[in-house]
From TrEMBL:
This is Energy-coupling factor transporter transmembrane protein EcfT. Its main location: membrane. Forms a stable energy-coupling factor (ECF) transporter complex composed of 2 membrane-embedded substrate-binding proteins (S component), 2 ATP-binding proteins (A component) and 2 transmembrane proteins (T component). InterPro entries: ABC/ECF_trnsptr_transmembrane, ECF_transporter_component, EcfT. It is a multi-pass membrane protein. GO terms for cellular component: plasma membrane.
């Protein structure tokens, strides 16, 4: 289960998406996430799904590898769907005990579940096609204008990059600790949800110790290499926008325009509602 988390991991392969400037991918991901929360009908979600499917195809990252990351959010996804289904007021369809399922609740729950799935896949696609170094340089470049108001753009970018890079490392460490304790008779799979949560407590202490040790080793290594932030720092590869980035921004504008137009096509949206 822990190895199924794909956020923060990089999938090395040569593709058009991998060769894009990291700033293009960061901006595109932010715009895509914002657009998902503005979509209100099936036509808009259809456009978002088609766009994401095209990006996955161009990235050459196996779809199974990307979908693996959804296994870790199944509980959160189910909780969100059920919460929206039972708490949304509207035309009642099913009523039992103190719960009432409404037509509007089903639509809201379906949209929210689909929105979360697309959000996780879209975010994972960015980290799968962008190395930590590229991600750091891209975030720092985008935050550079904030330096005029004394915002430490480089430090923020470095912290975000290190945090993403440490996700798979800590997951691998957790998996090793769990296997070591299971070899000594620990049981993490039997019992109810509360008992499973309690059985995970002994893992936290060695995991925190390992995390602090790795952080200390990283800080020592950075100091040994005379790291002083962005003061006098040079890069072997400077970021430059290319023709493919211009095409990507144009496609992004068309995507946003298509979503905007979908909000003003109620006839098409109602037809899709009737069909589905």
């Amino acid at each position: 289960m822990l190895r199924d988390i794909t956020i923060g991991q990089y999938y090395p392969v040569d593709s058009v998406i991998h060769r894009l400037d990291p700033r293009t991918k960061i901006i595109g991901t932010i715009v895509y996430i914002i657009a998902l929360f503005l979509v209100k009908n099936l036509l808009g979600f259809g456009i978002a799904i088609i766009a994401l499917a095209a990006l996955i195809s161009l990235s050459k990252v196996p779809f199974r590898y990307i979908v693996r990351g959804l296994k870790t959010i199944v509980i959160i996804l189910l909780f969100t769907v059920l919460l929206n289904m039972f708490l949304t007021k509207g035309d009642p369809l099913i009523h039992f005990w103190i719960f009432t399922i409404t037509r509007q609740g089903i639509y809201t729950a379906g949209f929210m579940g689909l929105r979360l799935i697309l959000l996780i896949i879209g975010s994972s696609l960015m980290t799968l096609t962008t190395t930590p170094i590229q991600l750091t340089d891209g975030i720092e470049s985008l935050l550079r204008p904030l330096k005029k108001i004394k915002v430490p753009a480089h430090d923020i970018a470095m912290m975000m990059s290190i945090a993403l890079r440490f996700i798979p490392i800590l997951l691998e460490e957790t998996d090793k600790i769990m296997k070591a304790q299971m070899a000594r008779g620990a049981d993490f799979e039997s019992g109810n949800l509360l008992q499973r949560a309690k059985s995970m407590v002994p893992i936290l202490v060695p995991l925190f110790i390992s995390a602090f040790r790795r952080a200390d080793e990283l800080a020592t290594a950075m100091e040994a290499r005379c790291y002083r932030g962005d003061v006098g720092r040079t890069r072997m590869k400077e970021l430059h926008y290319g023709r493919r980035d211009a095409v990507a921004y144009l496609i992004l504008l068309l995507f946003v325009g298509g979503l905007y137009a979908s909000r003003y096509l109620p006839a098409v949206s109602q037809l899709l509602h009737m069909i589905l």
